[in-house]
Amino acid sequence: MKKIALMCDSSADITKEQAKELDIHVIRMPISMNGKEFIEEETIFDKDIIQALKNGDQVKTAQPIIGDLTRMWDDLLQTYDEVFYLPLSKALSGTCHVAIGLADAYEGRVIVVDSEYVCYPVVKMLQTARKMFEKGYTSLQVKEKLEKEGSLFAVLIPENLTTLKNGGRISPAAAALAGLLKIQPLLKVEHGAIDLVDKVRTLKKAYKEGIAYVTKDIDPAEYDWMIIDADNREVSNELKLQLEEVIHQPVEQHVFKAVIMSHAGPGTIGFGRIKKIWY
């Protein structure tokens, strides 16, 4: 059986400790704060991002540096036969498109999944890929199965609009109006893209509507479930129980780390489901 290195980028919300334990290789993404550049989990950490966002500082993310990406591939191919890379959704980042182009030079030894995944579901899919490799599937077969059969659907509920406003994702006027009217947005993640799905008047109602929306018109047993929070574990604990009461399925808990949190902001809650892939 071929030795295949599993790889993702740090938008998958995976720590160095988790990556080592799961034997997943991670290319860390650049983060800039007030014009100064850092590398996530190397020169800047979650606590720094949380504090910066609470201070109203401008925090931005960027694609992995191309030289770092190809250098990691070159290093891995010294000891592995292939690299299986699952990047951040192509709808949210150019990383996927760039990586697919770069992989052409590696004559089939670097396989890049045309991804629609975001956050920790990337890790879940890499774990599924490993099990498929152990059953004899090739990298190209796994890539095809993930691209055709895999799906992620999630509802994100930011605690407030400050980070979205500071990041330029909504205008200051829209944020001010939403705050004045006490409007709470619900954002959906579907086909790898983020879009507004609903607006309600209170955070409590947003959580209730979020659970209703993510569980609507599906068989919960056909999905793996998770709740992800950005420095908001107490609320996450309560909502995990509420979601489990509705779906009668186990719900994993994870955290939004620096890359995703810098876009959504501290306090954000995400309800997510991943379609189970049968193999």
TrEMBL record:
Keyword field: Lipid-binding
Keyword GTP-binding: no
Protein name according to UniProt: DegV family protein with EDD domain
PANTHER family referenced in this protein's UniProt entry, alphabetically: DEGV DOMAIN-CONTAINING PROTEIN DR_1986-RELATED (PTHR33434), FATTY ACID-BINDING PROTEIN TM_1468 (PTHR33434:SF2)
Stored InterPro entries: DegV (IPR003797), DegV_C (IPR043168), DegV_domain_contain (IPR050270)
Any GO molecular function: lipid binding
Gene3D superfamilies: 3.30.1180.10, 3.40.50.10170
Superkingdom of the organism of origin: Bacteria
